[in-house]
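Minutes, structural biology subgroup

Action item carried over from last meeting: produce the structure token record for DUF1330 domain-containing protein (Shewanella ulleungensis). EB confirmed the sequence was re-checked against the source entry. Recorded below for completeness.
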Amino acid sequence: MSAFFIINYDVVDQNLYAKYNPGSNAITAGTVAKHGGTILAASDSEVDIIGQQGQIKVIIQFPNSQAAKAWLDDPEYAPAKAIRLAATDNINQYIVDGLAQ
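Output recorded by EB:
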């Protein structure tokens, strides 16, 4: 069953964040693909329906939740992830299982 990694956050250090996006995009995309994932959406556009979301929103589809967790823990992704965490705040991050087909 597919799983979706969903995250939204606010950028608090633009200069540092630039080292993540676009600076680490190749690392992020490469490690996502390594774990069978596909980046479905990544945007700073905002259309709040109910509630208030973070500035950046990302949705990544993985074959299953184990693959999503493996990507998050991948040592190759760790340096880029550390930059993202240091440059952002108000982070909401979770994995949601897809519907059984």
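Discussion: The chain has a mean pLDDT of 95.
Next step: EB to file the record with the rest of the batch.
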